[in-house]
Amino acid sequence: MKEKKTAEGAAAAPKRAGRRRRPVRQRTPGGAKPLIGELAVASGLTLPEVIATALDRQRHWGTSLGRVMVSTGAARLVDMARLYAAQHGIPFVNLLADPRDRALRRAEEIDFYLRTQCLPWRRHGAETIYVAADPPTARAAIAQHEGRPQPVFVTSPRDIDRTIMNEFGDALNERAIFDLARQMPESSAATPVTRRQAIVLAGLAILALAAFVAAPTAALVALNVVLGLCFFAVAALRYTSIFVGMMAQPTAEERAYQSRGAPPDDALPVYTVMVPLYDEARVLPIIARALQDLDYPASKLDIKLVFEASDVTTWEAAKALKLPDHFDFIRVPTSLPRTKPKACNFALPFARGELLVIYDAEDLPEPLQLKKAVAAFALGDERLACVQAQLNYYNWNENWLTRQFAIEYAAFFDLLLPTLVRLGLPIPLGGTSTHFRIDALRAVGAWDPNNVTEDADLGQRFALMGYRCGIIRSTTQEEANCRLNNWVRQRSRWVKGWMQTYLVRMRHPVRLYRALGFRGFVGFQIVMGGFSLSNLLHPMFYASMALALILAGGPGGFQHGTALAFFNAAVLVSGYSFSIAAGMAAVASRGLAPLFVQTLMMPAYWLLISVAAYKAIWQLATRPFHWEKTDHGLSRMMAVQLARLQTSPNPVEIPHGNSSSGGPH
Fold it and tell me: Which residues, in sequence order, are bridge partners of residue 436?
């Protein structure tokens, strides 16, 4: 009897709390259920003209009126949950004011709670009262799960997610860190070098040492030639990309979009947008405005801003923006490794979309980008797991470093990646503007939390497991790194991640060959292995040429030394000329005329990349999982971007200092 009384009293508490608002009608005359819009106006939540605008959007977007109102800032999720409860005559529970019974916590049921967006709330005699965002759907799932029907009350979906994070955050964090290593240990970089790889590498080192002792000149020449051919293969691929990347016909997906465009708004799927954040308070208003400017029904956007629990400054800055409630805030518990892929893994279970895209905090995606991705997926088969958008920089002309960075990105995203796709080779995805089919992403184990260039690794894993990746012609503008120290930190992390990916995939080279085939295997060696190696070898060819000329004065000098010097010069000249030609073609295609002459400075830029590569090798041995944070918001163009936000039709409120005010988050 005491248990029954407690449950009834708890169930009544939300009703008592609800009396603070203006009363709402429970039934219209004749017993018909009142409409949500009528209830919203009657309760004083909004005005009739706001409902009229929302109804017009509802007709075009094809979602519920409640989702339209929430996504346009006309109401909060908790407001719509109360109105839904009133409309259907179901009790409403505010989980923040009336938390659930701690005795009902069961970590083994996390997946069920997330999938159905429901939670057991209180015991009532022999029954368990559940709370859910969508009681009819949850009721059927609960009946099947429990073996009999159970009462289901209404609550806000935000409160369900918050409760799951608060109660099971450690378990979800543990999954984010260890699931890939448990389920697919051969794909995890948690062990940088396996025992077998260490033995093989040690054996090769011993053989090389023995060869140098027995025949130093011949061994040096042989090594030089082999490495030179690797360097030349990378340059040849860059040169090939000029013709394949620029001159090939549009893909079927591109032709279809050009002729038909994306599906109508009411046929578009729910799209999850994930933005991992760490120490990004300065640039947060930019991405917030860019996401609100996307040409996509706001009611079908499931936006996840993902914060580190220790990053209070960015969290408070986000609250101060007072964003609509379809912006969801997720806090990742503090733990190692503190990496972007671990944060994405933690947030992934809360994603509600069929498709998912990753953006960085400083990104300015083209407004039509999501619709272009939808069109590509609609025309692709089930093997199309991801499409990569193009990246470039809005501050490309700020200084020499940003100009070189822009040339490199144009050649990589506009020429090289389309070439790899057209040749059917695995591609190293970029770290942002990557659009996934969420079921395929989960099928391959999501991101490796220990790989510091997580999407390059994921692109290879997709190929290994029979999926493919594509390219869409849509550009996301980013902030180019304009300070040398910051650039070196960023580049050394990228190179380290590529090295991690190469080591992971080469644990089983025969298996990799069988999965990718001859062409795919060679492509992997050139792209992931050759690019990483060329970053390290570039300065060595200068030293090797000098040594070769010295050797030319000894016995057999012309045969060995001069010929080797000519070979190294040919490698360098071909590498420079092919890469410069690709850079010129890429910037010409982009319409960046001032960068045309700047391509001649690429050899000096390569030397900087080599400096970062040596740092990457050192960190791979000493701190393999350390994520070197790239600072954003350093460009002089930042002031221009922020000024544009304030003059836009719906300006973003930019916080000053660490304001703790904000919305329902």
Answer: 356, 386
